[in-house]
Amino acid sequence: PISALLARRRIKLPTAPQLNRPLRWGLIAIGILLAMGMTLYVLWAINDFIPHNQDAIAQLAHAKMLAGGRFSVPISEPIVQGHFNCDFMVYHDGRWFSQYTPGHIVMLALGVLMGPPWIVLVLIAGATVWLAYAIGKQIDGPTAGLLSMGLLVLSPFFQMMTASYMNHVSAALFWSAALAFLPLMDRKRSF
Question: pLDDT tens digits for 80-90?
Fold first, then answer.
């Protein structure tokens, strides 16, 4: 993001006043809860807690298969062609499954096992916001972390994606985790 470009070009921003630790942790908690609440609101008010495109439908269907203990389900070809024609579901050798890699599907399956699958989306939104703070803090201190977190929470794209069942949500989480923990790996290098 912008703070990464500024750090690379060694442009110094004016120093922001430092926030005391309790206030900073309070703002982080508010940001996380706000992201989770906004995700829940969009899931309820716009999406009715159900997926609305073929990508999301296929991923949730596959998650339900995994939650039931199966990676695929047996099905006959005439049934698939006549009644279950979904672009992103694969029919192969009498088995039916989605075309997506299992990472996000496993996370959705955990949600299916817990009850409502959308609970995973809400938790991922909160974790991603916390990681955005961690990345910003590493780049330019706590104020940059809070700014990064705030911009992510207010992003309409983030709000809509976290309320979908598509794998963009977990991809953002895993990329953020990789970026946040990258400096730790650099410190432990033993060449």
Answer: 666 666 778 88
